[in-house]
Each structure stands twice: as C-alpha cells, then as structure tokens.
Amino acid sequence: MTLNIRTESTTPERITLFVEGRLDASNYGPFDSEVQTKLAPLPEGGTVVLDLKDLEYISSAGLRSFAKIRKQMRARNGHTLLLNPQPQVRKVFDIVKAVPVNEIFVTVRELDDYLDQIQRKMMQEDR
Amino acid sequence: MGWRSISIASRLALWALLGSMLVLAISGTILFIHTRDTVLAHTHREAGALARGAASRIEARLDRVVVSTQQLAALIDPSSPDADKLLRQALKANHDLSGLAVAFRPGDGTIAPAPFVSRDSEGRMHGRDLRDDPTHYWQQNWFLGGLTCRKGCWQRPFFSKSRQRWLINFSVAIVRKDKPIGLVNADVSLDWLRDILGTLRKPDGAQAFVMGGDGVYLAHDRHDLTGHPGSPALLKALAARNGAPALLSARHAADLDEASWLYGAPIKGSYWSLGLLVPERRIYAPLRHLFIIDLSIGTLALLCIALMLLLVTRRMLAPLGVLAARAEHIARGETAFELPDIRGRDEVGRLTQSFDTMRQELAAHIEQLTEAVRAQQRLSSELEIAQQIQTSLLPSEHYIEARTTRFELHASLRPARAVGGDLYSYFMLDRHHFCVMVGDVSDKGIPAALFMARTITLAKALAAHTLSPQRMLKRLNQELCVGNESCMFVTLLCGVLDLRRGRFTMASAGHDPIMLCNEDGPRLIDAETGPAIGLDEDAAYPSHTVQLHAGDTLLMYTDGITEATDADMRMYGIERALRVLGQSPRPEKPSEYTHRLLSDLDRFVGSADQADDITILALSWHHTEDDGDTDVLELDLPGRIEDVFAALERCEQTMEASGIPGGVREDVRLVLEELMVNMVEHGHTGRTDGNIRLRLECDDDDVRVSLRDNGHPFNPLETKPPSTDTDGATDPEQVGGFGIHLVRAMASELTYSHDDQGNHLQLRFVNHSRMEPDS
Q: Transmembrane region positions (chain A) (predicted)?
C-alpha cells in the first residue's frame, strides 16, 4: 500500500490533508515535497489539519515529516492539528511525543470546537 | 376344585363321618356275627326241643298202638270165637287205629277166620272177613312180612284207595309154640301224624316231617312228599346226627326248598325219626331286619352329627377364611380392609388379633420401605445422570493429532464407584501447544465427583488463557480455595507440551511423579511439587521442564494404581509398575503402555475390590521436525533502502501466515524498519558491501528476531531518549533518536552484542493477546 494525499480547503486559512496508507522511510521524501507545495498558499496564521483516519502505519521517518510540518507552521504563527489517528499510529505518537497531546483530536467535532475557540481568542486579541 | 381346596370344615365333617361309619360298620359286623350265633344257638335249642317234644308225643301215640296190637296178638287164637269183638273193642278204645285185622296161616286145608274191622271217616265200624277177598291174603307181602315180626314191626306206608288216606301197618306175629301161626295187623292212619306236625308251634317257614325207618316220608308238612323217599343228603344227615342240628342246602337235598337247618329226633319204639327243617333265611331274617333298621338309624345319626360338625366348624373357622382372603390382600400390598370381629380369646380370636397387629405393622413397614425404595430409585437415577455428566466431562480415551501426528495420547479412567474423583483432560491450547492434566480429588463418590467437575471445568477455562502450567495451577488454586469449607482438595498434574520442540513444561500440585519412558526404560521424574490444590491459597507451584526426544512417552497416573491392593492387602507399588513397563519389548503406542499396566494390575488385584479410582494417561511425542509451513524467515540483504522495505514485506507476510495479530506485526515492522533504515543510512556510510542478515521466528507466544549487520558498531541501548521541547513536542532535529526510542519502547526484549562479524541484535516481541501478565 502506498501513500496517498488528498486535500480539502474549506477556508483559505485552513487546509485539511488526508494522509492515506503508510508513511515510512521509503516514502517520506515525496510526502515532504508534496506537502510543501500544498502548504505554500496558506496565509500567515493558517491552520493545517492532518486527517489520519486512513493512515495505517507510521515510522520515525513519518514522524519527522509531521514534525517538520509543525515546525514550519509555527514559524508562520500557524497551527498543526492531528485528527483521528488509528491505534497503531496513536501508539507511536504516544511513545515519541513528537506532537503535543492537546493537538491530537479524535473526532472532527472536537477539532471544530477547538478551532472555534482559537478564532474567538484571536478576535478578542484583535480587539 | 381339588380335594385340597375343600374347606377344613367339610373335610373335618367328611372324615368324622367316614371314621364313625367305619367304626359303626366294624362294631355292627362284630355284633351281627355275635348276635347271629346267639340267635342260631337259641334257634337250635328251641327247634331241637320242639323236635324232641314232637317225637315224644308221637312215641306215646305209637306205644299205645303197639301195646294194643301186642295184647291182641297175645289174646287171639285161631279158635277164638270173639276175635271180631275184641277187634272192635280195641278199635273203639284207640282212635289212632283205622283198622284191625287178624289173619292166620292156612293149615291142613282149613283157614281160620280172618276178621277185619275198619273205621270210616265218620267213625262207623265196618267188618269183613279177609278170606272173602278175591286175593289170598296169605300170599300177600304184608302177611308174609308180618309173620316175621314177633315183637311187631311197622310196614311201609301205603295209600288206601278205599279209605282215601295214607295208612301204615303195624304187624305183630301170633306165636304159638314158638312158631308164628298168624298175625295181628293194625292199620294206623297217618292223619294224626300230620295233625301232630300241624299243631307244632314251629317257627315261621319251618317244616316238620316224620321219616320212616326205610327212608320214606310218613308225614310231611308238604303233603305231596308223604310216601316219597327222602333225599340221600337229608337221610344221611338224619342218620349221622347226634342230636346236633345240620345245615342242608337245597342244592344237595332235592326235597328242600331252600337252605335249612335240620333238627332230628328219633322216635323210640320205631325206626322213625321226626325232623324239623328251619330255613336259614328265616332264622336270620329278623336279625337282618333289625340290623338294617339299626344301621339306617345309625347312619342317619352320623349324617346329622357330620352336618352339625360341619356347621359348627364352619362357623368357628369362618374368620380363618376371611383371614386367608385378607392375607392375599396383604400379599398384594393392600393393608386397609375389614377384619372379622374378635369373638373370644380362643385360637381364632388370638390369630385375628395377631393378624390385625401384623397388618398395622406391615402397613407401616411397607410405607417405610416404599419411601426408602423411592428414595433409592431417585438416588440411583440421579447417580446415573451424574455418571453420564461426569463421563461427558472427560475427553475421549484416544487422541492423535490428525494433521501432523506429532504426538499420540491414550488415557483410561476406571471409577471405583458410579462417579469418582479422578480426572484427566487434554486439549490443544493453540497450534503448537498441547495441554494435558491428570488429577485426583480427595475422597470418593459424589462429593469427589462434584469437586472433580468443578476442577476440570475451571482448569480448562483457565488453561485457555495461559501457556504456563505454573500460573494455571496458581490461579486454579486461588479459585478453588474460595469457600472450600469442606477442605476438599485435589492433587493435579498439569503439563504443556510444545509440539515442535518436545519440551514438556509441567507443574504438580502434590501429585504422583510423572513417569518418563524412553529407550533407557521407564523412570520417575523427580520434580518439586506444590501443595495440593484447595488448601493454601498462597501456594506456589514450581515449574519443571522435561525435554522429550522422539519416541519418548510420558505416563501420568493416580494413586489408584500404586495403592491398589490384592486380596492379602499388599500394595501394587510404583516399583512393580516400572518393572512391568520396562520389560521388553518396549511398548510402541500409548495404548500399549496403558493396557500393559492395567492388565498387570488386574492380575495383581485378582478378585479383590477396587478401592479407589484408577486413572492412567500415556502421551507419546513422535518427532521434532517442523511441519512444512515454516515460521522462520531468514534473509540476507544488501544495504539498500529498497531491499530493506522488500524484506519488511516478507516479514509481514511470514508473521501474517503464522497468525501473529496485526498489532504485534505493526510493532515488529516499525522496529525493524527503524533499525534497518538506521543501519543503511548511518551504519554503512562510506561502504558498498553493507549487508544485513535477518532471522525472524514466529511463535504463538512471541516473535523473535535476530539482526546482524556489518556496519559501524552501534548499540541502540546506549542512545539517550530524545528530549522534549517546551511545548511538549520533540525537536525534529533530534528525530533520529525517535527511531531508537521507538525500538526500545516497542520490543519486549532487546540485546545487543558486537563481534568480528559486526553488530548482533536480538529482539523479542511478546504476543500479548496470548499471554496474560504475570499475577
């Protein structure tokens, strides 16, 4: 099973990446470059959501890719949120702690609530 | 209805009747004979006297005739002028005379007058002279015969036609100068004789007669016989008698009508005899009549007595009949019925009372018995069901792994009672592990069976979750200790055979040692055991491992074998078992082990009772060879990243084929990827002969991996875990440490070594879905 990426963009500030298949040392290179092109249009302070519902397997190489995404987004004051990791993948996150626990969500609804919260916070700051 | 079914009363009456009839008949007969003799003697006396009396009367009458005639003979001469007159006087004086005649022999041409005077029936006298008769009297027989009778003699009787009567002559010769010159002849009518006979007071039916000296009847009550000769038998009896009566039969004496007694009496002065014939029948007739009457009355009386006896006995014995019928009721098990009233304290009354008591006690007894039998039946049917249930708890006696025939098992369990406390069980834990257990519950019978059922069910349930007999026994012990107030316990031996390697891991809870039979012969395996299960909840059970070789057989048994006793109470003992099993030829199949041991045991025990349950289980392990679908993967790959991923795919396939669950597979794959990618990317930098050798072994309980590479020495155990930055995420620059960290976190065991061939990593991943954590 190879890796497949689909993107969905509901708002310009937010992009959702559906990562499907396996992400390991054999394919993290192409993944990194594809993600770069997809993240490039995001404005300052944008949000990237990695939907891991169909990600079956991840190794440390994959983790490194996610870490890179996160680092890049932080540099642009953006957020990286993980949605719906499968148990095997979740286990790896838990062991390595490459992503803070509060940035991992189990359902879309949970994620939306969190994003609303951020938006309200930002609006308050703007005012 | 046979004789035996006739009632006692009837039999009693009948026997009494028969008995008294017999007595009556015998005594009657004796009396009859005696009375008959008496009557006969009496008749003899009476008839004899009568005959003699009659004879005397006739004698007297005859005497007068004789005397008259003799006087006349003395008086009359041929010259007597008054001869006629004399005759008439004499005739007148004696009425017995019917006629008188005097006649002389003619002499010298003259014939003296021969007067004859006779009397007719009216009593008139007639006279004539015999010389006038046409016949010459001197030529007549009567005259010639009479001349010879000097004293007088009686002539033959004759029927006088002129006078129409029977007459007899008495002739006396007239003797002068000693010479008979004539005679006096008296005609005597026999009518008076008949009259005399007729006036005799004879017994009924008796006949009297007068017999002349020449054997001719002079008179007879049967008139037709007068003048006829008597039968020789009668004459002989008359002549032979000595005054004693004689019995004549009509067959021998023609002049008799029937058998009669003859009483004779001689009439003196003549040769006559008087006879009296009394028919025998007439003598006994009254007697017979009397006896018939007596007998009838007696019989009637006896019948009455018998009838009374019958009625009385029946009445007395009637309760017996009722009791007999009631006894049949009792025989059918019915005890509620009416008993006859107790009328008295006689035997029947006492019997009735005893019967009543017996009935009541029987009823109570039957009720108890019925209850007991019902309980017994219930118990036995329950026991039967219990036996079926218990049997169903045991697996079949023979088991051979159908797919690979890597081992074979044969077990035998003989309960001493319907249900028992011995148990054995076996089952495959997974494809490569076979669990077997043999146990013995303390005690026997139902309590033991219940405990056995609990043990075997629990043990099976627990064994399914562990591969370790040690842990299984510990858990089982904890479970069985709970609420074991009766302190029942079970000794149990549990073992798990690894079918691939022949490793038998076992733990024993106070059970008899296991026996190993290999080419060196049988021997006991001395393994440390824990306490029996159910007593101490903190007990621990040490594990012991036996390495089997192909063809080895393990024997498990209960003390029912070693402690079996023969009739002399000697124990079988384990030494004998070892000796028997060690005899050549060595058994080949498990069933041969069990059969040999059990048949020897049977010979030893003989007729003695089996005291304890007997169980024996033999397990033979056949071979070590892998069974084709190998679970081992060995790869030798060059140090390139695409080869690494190809190898990872192979590993994945191998694990999947071995049934390793997805979670473990992912872990293994992740770890191997991290390690091998690390080797390729860091270990082999600057070289082209990079090489990785991988060996992966899949078991049901774990996955073992051996990794060798010829790269730079690198001990993953010595790298530090990655640090986390302030917001809780790992710095991506340190991400190289991620992999090693994952490896350490995910592998259950990890060892590293380095030698001249390079790095050697050994990893083990425990299959947690099969193994439970140690408690």
A: none
User: How many domains does chain A contain in total?
Assistant: 1
What is the pTM assigned to this prediction?
0.43
DSSP string, B247-305: EE-TTT-TT-SS-EEEEEEE-TTSS-EEEEEEEHHHHHHHHHHHHHHHHHHHHHHHHHH
CA gyration radius, chain B? 76
Tell me how far apart the alpha carbons of residues A61 and A98 are, in angstroms, rounded to a whole number: 12
Q: Which residue, chain included where needed, has tokens 């995420």?
A: B729
DSSP assignment of A29-47? HHHHHHHHHHHTTPPTT-E
Distance CA A22, CA A11 (A): 28
User: Residues B744-764: pLDDT tens digits?
Assistant: 888 888 888 888 888 889 898
Instruction: Give Cβ neighbours of residue B351 (< 8 Å, ≥ 6 apart).
Output: B319, B320, B323
Task: For helices B8-75 and B191-199, give the axis angle rounded to 10 degrees.
Answer: 150
pLDDT given at position B775: 37
Please state, in angstroms and as integers, the Cα–Cα distance from residue B207 to each residue in B8, B186, B203, B752, following that order.
58, 28, 9, 171
How many Cβ pairs within 8 Å bridge chains A and B?
72
* Rounded-to-integer distance, Cα B729 and Cα B717, Å: 22
How far is CA B454 from its chain centroid? 50
* Boundaries of domain holding A26: 4-126
Q: Identify which of B650, B682, B688 has the alpha carbon closest to the alpha carbon of residue B759.
A: B682
Task: Pick B730's closest partner by Cβ from A26, A67, A87.
Answer: A67
**DSSP-derived 3-state class of residue B474:** helix
Topology of domain B632-766, CATH: Heat Shock Protein 90 (3.30.565)
d(Cα B456, Cα B490) in Å, to the nearest integer?
10
B58 touches B277 (CB < 8 A): no
- Report chain A's C-alpha Rg in angstroms: 14
**B178 torsion bin: left (phi>0), alpha (psi -120 to 50), beta (else):** left
Give the mutation candidate from B733, B742, B746, B768 for the A interface (greatest A CB count, under 10 A).
Answer: B742
In this complex, do A96 and B741 lie within 8 Å of one another by their Cβ atoms? yes
Q: To which H or E segment does residue B362 belong?
A: helix B347-393
CATH 3.30.565.10 residue ranges for chain B? 632-766
Cβ B761 vs Cβ B751: under 8 Å:
yes
Neighbour order of strands in the sheet with B749-755: B632-638, B691-698, B702-709, B758-766, B749-755
Edge-to-edge strand ranges of the sheet holding B407-414: B398-400, B407-414, B614-621, B553-557, B515-518, B521-524
Structural element, H or E, at residue B399: strand B398-400
| Tokens (6 digits) for B155 | 């002539």
Report yes or no for ipTM above 0.85.
Answer: no
pLDDT of B163-198, one tens digit each? 777 888 888 888 888 888 888 888 888 878 888 888
Helix ranges (DSSP H) in B76-159: 83-93, 141-146
Q: Collect all residues of chain B within an 8 Å Cβ-Cβ radius of residue A100.
A: 727-729
Is the CB of A25 less than 8 angstroms away from the CB of B644?
A: yes
The pLDDT value recorded for residue B3 is 62
CA B580/CA B574 separation, integer angstroms:
10
What's the gap in Å between the CA of A8 and the closest CA on chain B? 26
Closest partner CB to A95 (pick from B642, B663, B745):
B745
CATH topology of domain B41-295: Beta-Lactamase (3.30.450)
**Chain B residues touching residue A87 (CB < 8 angstroms):** 663
A16 bridge partner residues:
A8, A49
Closest by Cβ to A100, choosing from B663, B729, B742: B729
Give the CATH number for residue A16: 3.30.750.24
Helices of type H across B552-687: 559-562, 574-582, 590-605, 641-657, 662-678
Q: Which residues, at least 6 apart from B739, have a Cβ–Cβ distance to it below 8 Å? A: A59, A60, B674, B675, B677, B678
